[in-house]
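writing this on my phone so excuse typos. first protein, seq and then structure
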Amino acid sequence: TSRGLGDVYKRQCLHWAAAGKTSWETGRILDISESTVNFHLRNASRKLQVRGRRAAVAAAIRRGLLHPVTA
């Protein structure tokens, strides 16, 4: 999709990044490698036209693509 994030892993990686998880922790949760998590976060950042995981999380929340994570 041109407006959304697309693939499930991008959304899941952003969700766990928003929850404060490291790439390693996210990889363990999703049963994928840390480098695969970083790949999906980089793609999400590129698609959202920002740099870095925190900026990607903030942009996704602002655009309604990701719900804020509360403790």
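second protein below, same order as before
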Amino acid sequence: ECGNTVMHFAAEENLANIVDLLLHLECHFDSVNKEGVTPLLIAVMRRNEEMAITLLKLGANPNARFKSRTV
């Protein structure tokens, strides 16, 4: 419905082991949902600092935008 991927849900719930598994399966970690939100933006909005740092180390785009504004 909202276009979230499993990576979005893992970032939202701070499930580092799931993120590792998804990366092993070559899932894209910088995908956007219908609102233009990436897993990194979800981690930042949920204040999951450890997850945000992990995604940034993997190469997530720190300049991703959410609906024409920077989060």
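Residues 7 and 53 are 15 Å apart (CA to CA). thats all i got for now
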